[in-house]
Amino acid sequence: MKKIIIAFVMGFMFIAPPLTQPAHATLSNNDTFRQLDLLIEIFERVRSQYVEEVDDKELLEAAIRGMLNELDPHSSYMGPESFRESQQQQRGEYGGIGIEILPEHGMLKVISPFDDTPASRAGIMPGDFITHVDDVALTSLTSNEAVEKLRGPAGASVDIIIYREGAEAPLEITLVREVITVSAVRHTIERDNIGYIRLTTFNNENLSDDLLDVIKEIQNELGDDLKGYVLDLRNNPGGLLTQAVEVSDVFLPRGGEITSMRGRNRADSMRWSAKTNDQTQGLPIVVLVNAGSASASEIVTGALQDHRRATIIGERTFGKGVVQTVIPLGGERALRLTTARYYTPAGTSIQATGIEPDIIVEQPRRGQPRREVDLAGHIENENGEDEAVLTDEAADEVADEVVEADVDGDENTEATEEEVDASVDYQLRYALDLLEGVIHVSDSQDTVE
């Protein structure tokens, strides 16, 4: 059976044929048998002596979930409901509040709200933690159960409680669910000569086609006045691997490597290269990223950075560089298992390190963002580079001033942190100034803090 490459919220996945046991695998190890006997004994003790009667099926599924949860933050067991929801999400439409989340510390951490959804309109922010849904503490639920409580029919309300770092008290918010249709591509014309393109997710099978349509529309509208493009991948949590490859292909010359994937098994190792020519006619490109740029976003960013096709501006990315394979188990159940790492064209693993921008421009925010390296049980970078990345706290110590590009195009001005306006998109403004030639940078890495 041919593998169908798919991906979900914070990472890449595959739909794979049923797992076959390698020829060299064996269960003759006495320790393994003893541990399995122990598992069966505990199961029998619980089902016969626990203070209340328990459902055998639920008990076994809990044991499976516990085993997978111990591996890493992204491996998991998918029951019928969660498996159906994952397939529904791949199609880009579902009933909910429009938010990308990741289980963490018994809560749901907000990676990013989708634009123009109940979550974004309510002011929910990346880094928020959802602690309760409809008065139920999420610590009493599994991660799948917590996610399912946020989903529901359009028009039905849901009450959530949010913990936000720096807030005086938890935030109580009532949202009305909507049919969430992910609008993956949005664009505007900035300063009369720059095409601004925002990709909100890669979980859309038509993303690359829609992107090409937008690029043609910008080219037709501006003609020879077009100076370049801003590709905004901030707070984009990822999606389909096929779309990450095809989006990269839009900006790269034919034959340029996009990404590669390597696992323990040879069948899990693959490589992708650009098949078409650069559709932007070689015009300058700036890619905007931040801590919410993950997975497929990092594939595109890494490809364009390694090929020197774009200047990367913003903050270090999330750092999810591992691939999950979805293995159907029958009965609409599946095993989501981390099976490989992916690499940039330069052969770099970004797992737990992220991608460092060419130009660091920090956007004012409350608190420090969380990344893959902050997740309990994350898979370490194979080169042992987790600790080598400059942390945000360390970066704050490097410089005490925020440098901002002047709006009117004059020389750069400097402002203290107290004077910075959080409503100003400094990252986008810097990108536009760079494309217009208002500011110039050398090939070395610059820091704007």
Secondary structure blueprint with pairings:
Elements: E1 4-8, E2 11-15, H1 30-49, H2 56-69, E3 76-78, H3 80-90, E4 93-96, E5 99-104, E6 107-113, H4 118-121, E7 129-133, E8 136-137, H5 143-150, E9 157-163, E10 171-176, E11 178-181, E12 185-190, E13 194-199, H6 207-222, E14 228-232, H7 241-251, E15 257-263, E16 270-273, E17 285-289, H8 296-306, E18 311-314, E19 322-330, E20 333-343, E21 359-361, H9 392-398, E22 401-404, E23 413-416, H10 426-436, E24 446-448
Helix pairs in contact: 6-7, 7-8
Description:
By secondary structure, the chain is an alpha+beta fold. The chain folds into two domains: 93-181, PDZ domain (Pdz3 Domain, Roll), CATH 2.30.42.10; 185-374 and 390-448, 2-enoyl-CoA Hydratase, Chain A, domain 1, CATH 3.90.226.10. It is 25% helix and 28% strand. The strands form five sheets. Strands 1, 2, 3, 15, 16, 19 and 20 form a seven-stranded mixed sheet that branches. A seven-stranded mixed sheet has the order 12-13-14-17-18-21-24, with helices on both faces. Strands 5, 6, 7, 8, 9 and 10 form a six-stranded antiparallel sheet that branches. Helix 6 (207-222) packs parallel to helix 7 and helix 7 (241-251) runs parallel beside helix 8. The chain starts with a strand and ends with a strand. The model is unreliable at 1-11, 17-27, 387-418 and 443-449 (pLDDT under 50).
